[in-house]
């Protein structure tokens, strides 16, 4: 990279989750390259099949509005003997899985569900898919561009440690950290002077076109505690309860997976327990959890979560 951290030296893969942070990073990178990415800098979205429709629409809009080719990929196979180009499949907005299919196939293959101690969903469904994609293109070494911000120190340290270990064919780069961009920068980019909660409420009331007055002319349309896998066990109890109250149907798929393998995603509760709690308890104030990010792998502030309980 040169002095501008957003100018990426290929070969590189930019991994986007279609949350506001990674979309912000993508736009900075596109702008730093004068509107067109080098041919050996690839943009990838790995679909788990458990995303909200708003997330998929937002990602599609990022690609179209910013004139960038975003490759939509889904996990298919984890066997080493399977050729890399068959371990994932390229899909598009219309053909992308919407009922957890890639995630379910992985759970069936592992005969267990992931948890906080063993969060292999991110590893297989996202990290490895990116790696297989780059390998399928013939690259042996590349940069892995990640949308971590300067205010996410704990996760940044983890990625730096991975770089030091140098076990992977890629090196992680975090241009937002080098640029010292924080959540405040991301919010300003998408919402200007509006409060995020107000900007999202307007879109909930009047539909996506209400975002036309926001700085970028479009938006994700989800609260900051929504987004990525609808049921994500890494978010913590309070955020999950809030999500379930808003969209009760999101417990159906994880409950089915827990019954399938006879285990639970978290130690203290099953998704059937969560559904019951949402039905029988009053609306809770999310407090600081309202500020929680919901991009894959970013948990809420509920640190009491423990995972891996086997069902009785
Ligand atoms: S959003 Fe949560 S459940 Fe989905 S892949 Fe990431 S860590 Fe796993």
UniProtKB/TrEMBL annotation:
It comes from the Bacteria. InterPro entries: Rossmann-like_a/b/a_fold. This is Phosphoadenosine phosphosulphate reductase domain-containing protein.
């Amino acid at each position: 990279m040169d002095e501008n951290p957003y100018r990426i030296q290929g070969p590189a893969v930019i991994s986007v989750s279609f949350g506001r942070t990674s979309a912000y990073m993508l736009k900075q990178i596109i702008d730093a390259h004068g509107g067109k990415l080098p041919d050996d800098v690839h943009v990838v979205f790995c679909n788990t099949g458990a995303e909200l429709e708003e997330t998929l629409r937002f990602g599609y809009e990022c690609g179209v509005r910013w004139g960038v080719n975003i490759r939509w990929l889904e996990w298919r196979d984890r066997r080493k003997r399977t050729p890399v180009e068959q371990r994932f499949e390229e899909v598009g907005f219309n053909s992308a899985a919407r009922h957890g299919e890639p995630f379910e196939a992985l759970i069936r293959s592992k005969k267990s569900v992931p948890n906080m101690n063993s969060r292999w969903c991110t590893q297989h469904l996202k990290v490895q898919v990116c790696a297989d994609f780059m390998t399928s293109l013939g690259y042996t070494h590349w940069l892995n561009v990640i949308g971590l911000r300067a205010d996410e120190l704990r996760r940044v340290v983890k990625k730096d440690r991975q770089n030091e270990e140098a076990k992977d064919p890629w090196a992680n780069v975090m241009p937002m950290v080098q640029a010292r961009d924080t959540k405040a920068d991301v919010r300003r980019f998408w919402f200007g002077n509006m409060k995020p909660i107000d900007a999202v409420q307007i879109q909930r009331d009047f539909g996506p076109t209400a975002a036309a007055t926001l700085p970028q002319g479009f938006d994700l349309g989800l609260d900051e505690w929504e987004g990525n896998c609808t049921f994500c066990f890494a978010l913590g109890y309070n955020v999950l309860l809030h999500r379930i109250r808003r969209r009760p149907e999101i417990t159906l798929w994880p409950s089915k997976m827990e019954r399938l393998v006879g285990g639970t995603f978290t130690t203290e509760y099953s998704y059937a327990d969560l559904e019951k709690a949402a039905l029988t308890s009053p609306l809770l104030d999310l407090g600081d959890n309202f500020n929680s990010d919901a991009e894959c792998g970013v948990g809420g502030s509920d640190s009491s979560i423990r995972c891996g309980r086997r069902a009785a």
